Amino acid sequence: MSALSAVEQALENRWEALWARVFDKEPVELVDALRRECDSNVVVCSESRVVVPNAYDIELADSVHDELTRRGTNVGQALTDSLIRHAEHKGYEWAGPLAVHITRSAYVPNGRYRVASSVMSHVSADGFQYAAH
After folding, report:
1. Pairing state of beta strands 49-52 and 43-46?
2. How far apart are the C-alpha atoms of 17 and 41, rounded to whole Å?
């Protein structure tokens, strides 16, 4: 492990420890679930190109959603940032612009959350650039 990798790993461990202290481990579980979803849907296009889905949907049980939103944090952005770091670390390429959507659901099977991914093929980076102007 290079010195840079060791520093990145140490920062990631501190980030996860902070999430665990502040949010009673729930977002850490969400981060892990997002990473697993990303890792389990890789498409190896060539030795130098590994593509992963760019749309992630997180359904939260009512109680979990209420708890996270009550604290007033931007959980969606934090989860997106963590997923970006994970993909960079693994050398993944997004299938398009990354989007993480968090919704409330009364029908989450495990009572906490459900994570799913897909490829939003109808979205292009060019569209985002034009929308910004």
Report:
1. antiparallel
2. 27
CA distance linking residue 77 with residue 85, whole number of Å: 12
Task: Residue count of the chain, please give it.
Answer: 133
Interval 41-96: pLDDT, tens: 999 999 899 999 999 999 988 888 887 777 666 788 888 999 999 999 999 999 99
> Phi, psi at residue 131, to the nearest 5°?
-65, -30
Residue 99 three-state SS: strand
List of residues 6+ apart from 43 with CB closer than 8 A = 50, 51, 52
Q: Looking at the DSSP assignment, which residues form a beta bridge with residue 101? A: 57
CB-hemisphere CA count at 13 Å for 63?
5
Please, are residues 114 and 103 in contact by the beta-carbon 8 Å criterion? no
- The token duo for 39 is 């890792």
User: Look-up: residue for tokens 């939260």?
Assistant: 60
